[in-house]
Amino acid sequence: MTTEKLQNNCFVICPIGEPKTEIRKRSDKVYKFIINPVIKELEGYDLEVIRADRISSPGIITDQIIQHLLEDILVIADLSDSNPNVYYELAIRHAIKLPFIQIIQEGEKIPFDNFNMRTISYGFDIETVDETKRNMFEQIRNALADPKKITTPISISTDLKLLEESGNPLEKINAEILSNISDLRSLVVGMMGKTTVAPMSIEIKHFENILRIVTLLSRKLLEIEKEKSYEDFDEIWDLIEHLFIGIKIFARGTDIPFELVHQFRTRFEKLRSLRRQQSISEFFNFEED
C-alpha cells in the first residue's frame, strides 16, 4: 500500500486508563507536550493528531480503530505498561508496513521481541522532553519520506514465504539464508530471556548490537532480492561475519552453547558455497543465451 491514498492523520495508540488515573495523566502529558508539538513542526504534511480514546471507549478495539490503523499515514504507539491492546493494534500496523513510531516511558523495559525495532524513550523533565521531540521528529520525517524502507518482523516473514515459494534457485537460497538469520535471532532472544542481566550491562549492549545487525541483514537481503542486485552479496557475508563475532562475545556471558553457534556457522558456509555455485551457473546460462 502506498501513502498517497492514506488519510492525513497521525493516529496515537497508548494505554489510556480511566479519567484522573496516573495512566491517563501520563498519556495526556505525552499527547500535549511531546506528540502534538512534534506533529505541528512537520512541514508539508498538515497532519491531524487523533488518539484512540477520542473515537471509542477505553479498552475496546472498534472498527474505527482498525480503520485508522489501516488508513492513516502515521501511527505512534506508546509501549509503556506493556498494554495488550497497544501491542495488538501495533501488530496490525507492522503487518501492513506503513509508517509507525514506537515510544516508551524511560526506565521501562522493551520486550525482547521488539528490541530490534527502534523505540524512543521519553520522560517529562525539560531536557528529556526536548531530546524525545528531536528524536521523534527525525524518525517521523525519515519514515514518511521513504515508507518503502520500513521493515518489521511480520513483513520479513511474509517476504520470506514468497522467496521460499519461488521457482528461482537463487531466491530459494536467499530464503534459506533469511530463515537461518531469523532462527539465529530467535536463539539469541530466547537465551537473553532466560539470562538475568542489569539493564545497562555489557551483555545488554552486545545483545542490542546483535539485533541491530540481524535487522540490517534482513533488510539488506530483501533489498538485494527486490532489486536483483546480486553483486552486492559480499556485504551480506561481511555482516554475517560481524554477527557471529557479536554472538561469540555475547555467548560468553550467557548459556548459549558454542556448538550450536558453530552449527549455524557451518550452515551459512554451505549456503554461501551453494549460492556461489548457483551464481556461476546462472552466469554461464546467461552467456549461452
Task: Please give a structural write-up.
By secondary structure, the chain is α/β, with parallel strands linked by helices. The protein folds into 2 domains: 3-149, Rossmann fold; 153-288, no CATH class. Helix content is 61%, strand content 10%. It is built from 9 helices and 5 strands. It has a 5-stranded parallel sheet with strand order 2-1-3-4-5, sandwiched between helices. Strand 3 (72-78), helix 3 and strand 4 form a beta-alpha-beta unit. Helix 6 (169-193) packs antiparallel against helix 7 (202-227), helix 6 runs antiparallel to helix 9 and helix 8 packs antiparallel against helix 9 (258-288). The longest helix is centred in the last third of the chain and has 31 residues, at 258-288. It is globular, with a radius of gyration of 21 Å. The two termini are 37 Å apart. The relative contact order is 0.09. Residues 283-289 have low confidence and may be disordered.
In short:
The protein has 9 helices and 5 strands. The chain has helices spanning 22-41, 63-71, 84-96, 126-145, 153-164, 169-193, 202-227, 233-251, 258-288, and strands at residues 7-13, 48-51, 72-78, 100-105, 119-122.
